[in-house]
Amino acid sequence: MTAANVVRFRMSVARGGLTGLPGLIGLIALFCWAPVKAQQVEPATLRDLQPVVEGELSLYQIHKLPGRLLSQGTNNRSIGSLALLTYQLEEIQLPTPLRTKIQGQMQEVSTAWRITVTGGPFTVRDAPAVISIDGVPIGIGAESPDLRRLTVVTFNRAALRDGGTISVGYGIGDPEAVELPDKLIMKAAR
């Protein structure tokens, strides 16, 4: 329904023209149109967590690149309903620069960071597993074939706070998200 049709419909209603089948169809169209506009201004969604990558490499290829181990946790006791164990942080030097969106702005990058959380097995659910640091989602975890590891790649160095708490939940803002006892160590990162 176009904006002009909405105006015409509202004027018709004001004149008492909401009668019969045409009026009902117009009313239904108006209610169907309103939610579409509301969705366009909706805040961060799961789709926003997947990095947009423009360049020679896909996100899948970046996940597979070798990385330099920066830090890893030492916990060896299962934690919470997801049986989380620990994490590993790697720095990935990209073979060619690419463009990605960081905090709403397209930027050229040559480095990525990969966080792998071990535990599980992580079950496949309606909502994907989301890895967060200090409650801020940094990405959707890609499950390993054995469902014992979740991996996320981020290009936003600022999201990786030294001493930050790593958690895993299903969807954004999961009230049952589980926190790792190991804190993120970033001292070796550039």
Describe this structure as you would to a colleague.
- It is a single chain.
- This protein is an alpha+beta fold.
- The strands form 2 sheets. Strands 1, 2, 3, 4, 7 and 8 form a 6-stranded antiparallel β-sheet that branches. Strands 6-5-9-10 form a 4-stranded antiparallel β-sheet, with no helix packed on it.
- A hairpin with a 2-residue loop joins strand 5 (129-133) and strand 6.
- The chain has helices at residues 3-14, 20-40, 46-49, 59-64, and strands at 53-54, 68-72, 87-102, 105-118, 129-133, 136-140, 142-143, 149-154, 165-170, 178-183.
- The termini are far apart.
- It is globular, with a radius of gyration of 23 Å.
- It has 2 domains: 3-40, no CATH class; 48-183, no CATH class.
- It is built from 4 helices and 10 strands; from the N terminus they run H-H-H-E-H-E-E-E-E-E-E-E-E-E.
Topology:
Layout: H1 3-14, H2 20-40, H3 46-49, E1 53-54, H4 59-64, E2 68-72, E3 87-102, E4 105-118, E5 129-133, E6 136-140, E7 142-143, E8 149-154, E9 165-170, E10 178-183
Q: Percent helix among the residues? A: 10-25%
Radius of gyration over C-alpha positions, nearest whole angstrom:
23 Å
Give the overall silhouette. globular
Biggest pleated-sheet summary: 6 strands, antiparallel
Number of strands: 10
What is the total number of structural domains? 2
**Strand portion, in percent?**
35-45%
Along the chain, the helix and strand elements come as: HHHEHEEEEEEEEE
Mean pLDDT: 78
Distance between the termini: 51 Å
